[in-house]
Amino acid sequence: MSCKTNEELTKLVEQARPFVKYGKVADYIPALKESNPDDLSVSICYLDGTRFFAGDYVKKFTLQSISKVIALAYVLIENGPNEVFSNVGMEPTGDPFNSIVKLETSNPSKPLNPMINAGALAVTNMFKGEDHYEKWEGFIQFVQSLLGIEEVSWNENVALSEFNTAFLNRSLGFFMKQYEIIHGDIEELLFLYTKQCAIEINCSQLATIGAVFANEGKDPVTQEVKVPSDVARICKTFMVTCGMYNASGEFATKVGIPAKSGVSGGIMGAVPHKCGIGVFGPALDEKGNSIAGLNLVQLMSDRYQWSIF
Amino acid sequence: MSCKTNEELTKLVEQARPFVKYGKVADYIPALKESNPDDLSVSICYLDGTRFFAGDYVKKFTLQSISKVIALAYVLIENGPNEVFSNVGMEPTGDPFNSIVKLETSNPSKPLNPMINAGALAVTNMFKGEDHYEKWEGFIQFVQSLLGIEEVSWNENVALSEFNTAFLNRSLGFFMKQYEIIHGDIEELLFLYTKQCAIEINCSQLATIGAVFANEGKDPVTQEVKVPSDVARICKTFMVTCGMYNASGEFATKVGIPAKSGVSGGIMGAVPHKCGIGVFGPALDEKGNSIAGLNLVQLMSDRYQWSIF
Amino acid sequence: MSCKTNEELTKLVEQARPFVKYGKVADYIPALKESNPDDLSVSICYLDGTRFFAGDYVKKFTLQSISKVIALAYVLIENGPNEVFSNVGMEPTGDPFNSIVKLETSNPSKPLNPMINAGALAVTNMFKGEDHYEKWEGFIQFVQSLLGIEEVSWNENVALSEFNTAFLNRSLGFFMKQYEIIHGDIEELLFLYTKQCAIEINCSQLATIGAVFANEGKDPVTQEVKVPSDVARICKTFMVTCGMYNASGEFATKVGIPAKSGVSGGIMGAVPHKCGIGVFGPALDEKGNSIAGLNLVQLMSDRYQWSIF
Amino acid sequence: MSCKTNEELTKLVEQARPFVKYGKVADYIPALKESNPDDLSVSICYLDGTRFFAGDYVKKFTLQSISKVIALAYVLIENGPNEVFSNVGMEPTGDPFNSIVKLETSNPSKPLNPMINAGALAVTNMFKGEDHYEKWEGFIQFVQSLLGIEEVSWNENVALSEFNTAFLNRSLGFFMKQYEIIHGDIEELLFLYTKQCAIEINCSQLATIGAVFANEGKDPVTQEVKVPSDVARICKTFMVTCGMYNASGEFATKVGIPAKSGVSGGIMGAVPHKCGIGVFGPALDEKGNSIAGLNLVQLMSDRYQWSIF
């Protein structure tokens, strides 16, 4: 069963929207505090290119942690799995996404997976390029190619706000530099990472990228290969085992689709062989996931029988 | 694409068998040391009841940690998800399967998931019954019903061997008793748990149970409901996120099917909507998974395109 | 400067007593809940046998953790430092006294010191004897010899209350049994340990034992050697570095004398070359130390210039 | 009993020197690798100003962690105990000196004591002054006043070598900045801290500073107050509970004097009411203490009965 009209999607959004009042917008990055907690929007992109929408689906928001999946895909393509997984592990963790403990207690010191902050920093540190400009260009062109557009913007205000307050990420960065997991200048890495997190996108575009992953790496409209199928598969795996912060296990049990959330309130879903989804709802639960967004994805998964399990 | 003959399965077994020499049989339970490290056998059970075999597929071995999934299904049916998940969490962990650290550092103290030892003890502690006999009867009848047979044996030698040396599980048990996660007598719990782990089965039977989970809880031959579909789905989810000890993430990435391993060398797989699989190969890798068994499952998954991602 | 009259001690007690209202009696062992939170008494025993008292100095209470020092002295004498320190470390810890984390994360697994519960269990496990009776007799005779009396009682009610609820100590015990730090039956060990903790004593007697340690192991009246001087010195060292639970460092800084507290509200002090002290005040602060007792010891240390630093 | 001649001290040095072959010089700071592992020298400064020497007692070395005690004394004087201990704790720890784990797992996040790196950084962060120059001047003048000389040098080569490789200290610094334990620019803090660690001194001078602490804060020759007596006492306390890295407990038991070591191979001792000592022996044991130096201090403590316990 699949979605047929924007109206049915709008009904689901209205069913999920009341949950916004139990959440609150992220405040650890000053610029994110300004989001409207009542927002909730969604887009589905089927693998034949059909699209459905509800809510303000062209409203821009920043990728934040959703960029971790895209950056992972990028380095898997550019650097290959061997290099990538020599610097970052493949295992889920019960620790918080910003935890440093396991870096000290594990031997060898290596971030457990690319979806926690330490692992994401190690991933971004593998971007190829002579300097910041080349590294950034390589990555942003990859994002543009996924979206099939020529220019993707990043929110300078959000990036700088995060850059100026990312002391914990600097702590993780220097710790890994000590153990030679990452190399080079930490400030430059942080700048690259905060820009990556500040890329602006809307629900519809998020659904497009989800659809690429769902479609074994091929564009849902043109069927052009944007990501090799094995890279797409690896990314979907991490989305299941550690895509939703410390609620990944519960989400897998209740919803059962590859998905990645960010503290801006976005959720990108990739339902294998079916569709991509983009959700935006900035009111977060205590684990950092969009509270109404989670509810909406569960309603859709139940209705359209998306669970891969 | 699906398996057509026992011969093609036998070829895959021969391709995987050389890996046995890089593994070794479990020695932490004295009775397991006597296994033959060269053994490797497999069975596939398709959802129309068709079966294929290779190796000594009727050789008995003990379930060990594979019993964790079956016990979870049992309490989910008998006690309901609300009670179950008030005592045990749903999140994967980066800690070893027998770790106690998170019980102390998490607040509230609660085992992270039902696939680690602490969580499995909490699950078995929920078995209903007035006494050991009733608790055991309830569970063993559930196992018998899954297999469609009237008697399932358990290996007393293995059970006692484990019971006599399970100091770490006692430590976990008493720790959780302190925090009122588990109740009652720890020795009785340990006896129940070690018997559960010592249930004897062969590859063919393991494939049957896997097929029940793969078939949304229905018997692959009679289509009779053995497990409610939502319970089957929850179990498959945990098999993906934490079924293969600390190699679960890597297994999900490389093989991509719900599976659970045990230190006896067994692996039970449940490929949704396709088939159940049973593998036995007692030579283990350092994480506690059958070393040749893992390789064999990966060969099958690649060939028959089983990955759910 | 030293104490000259009971009256001046009584004044100090009255100065410290108001603090009792900020503390509360231990409730983790049911039988301890019945203590009177307003109690506060003290005894000083100088090394020439002179004694001073204030408050109800003959009121009995149980040793609890104070017994850890006496048990340590006992095994150091009976088993020798080499055996003792092969089973238990010499380093302070920042973890709680009942923590299990370091047993798992340290390699080799070994309790950090004899003043935390894990270490104290390892110490009691070294008591020599064929059976419980012999082990207990050996230890209780040592306590009697320290006190110079022929019979020392233990509170059966407290011991059983603790024995029946000591799940965390059992957890520690089994964990160490797994790693072969301790041997034998855990229930028997727990029984021995809870009896040791339930030995009844009063302030005056506590001061006597403190005086033995302060006097390089010699009885303050007869000058008979009760404890070899090097054993007495080792014990005083542990009292400074880890005698006051997680407030040991602060106590060393503010008071500066070897001391050991227990959750019954007792504090035993040993001021080298000067005196022993016994304090009883069952209202505890959040770290488990007698709240008015701590204050009283600090008043005495300031007045009589006891700090060893 | 006290030392009477340089000859008897020379004999003790010769007795301890063979241990140098079981240690090795620090290599984590490149510039320290060039030390001569065979060096061993000592100086004792009695509280009447009498001095004894053995070995090359005028050879300069850098303070390294010994500076932690001096910096602590400085901020206790300048900022007062209340401010100091609101930013850094008083408790010993069983974790390594450079560990970050407790900063994450403790609530509130606060370094356990001023002798571990996290705590020492928090101490240096409290140096008063408008800019780096003023902060440094304030501290170096305090060191000069302790030594009674007008100029103290710092080894630029060692400081820069450490500054360029101190990634772990930066990690600790940013972590604490996140939790507002420290403020301001981390690079500036690191520069100040590495200069502090690179202050050059010799054995004789080290003994002088030790003697100030031993003498309740007064200069051993002039009896002028250099450090208030309560500050001197607090410092000696930390030297006992956490002055010798993860061997502090063992050192307290075997030697029993307030002492602080550094990875350059220095050990400063403060025997209350008796003497100060300075030792230099750059070959370290695995815990980071001078291996022959430790042995030498133990020989002296046994011979001259220095233990405070």
UniProtKB/TrEMBL annotation, chains A, B, C, D:
GO terms for molecular function: glutaminase activity. NCBIfam families: Gln_ase (TIGR03814). It comes from Bacillus spongiae. Its EC number is 3.5.1.2. The keyword Cytoplasm does not apply. Belongs to the glutaminase family. The lineage of its organism: Bacteria, Bacillati, Bacillota, Bacilli, Bacillales. Keywords: Acetylation, Hydrolase. Substrate binds at S65, N117, E162, N169, Y193, Y245, V263. SUPFAM superfamilies: beta-lactamase/transpeptidase-like (SSF56601). Homotetramer. It comes from the Bacteria. It catalyses: L-glutamine + H2O = L-glutamate + NH4(+). This is Glutaminase.
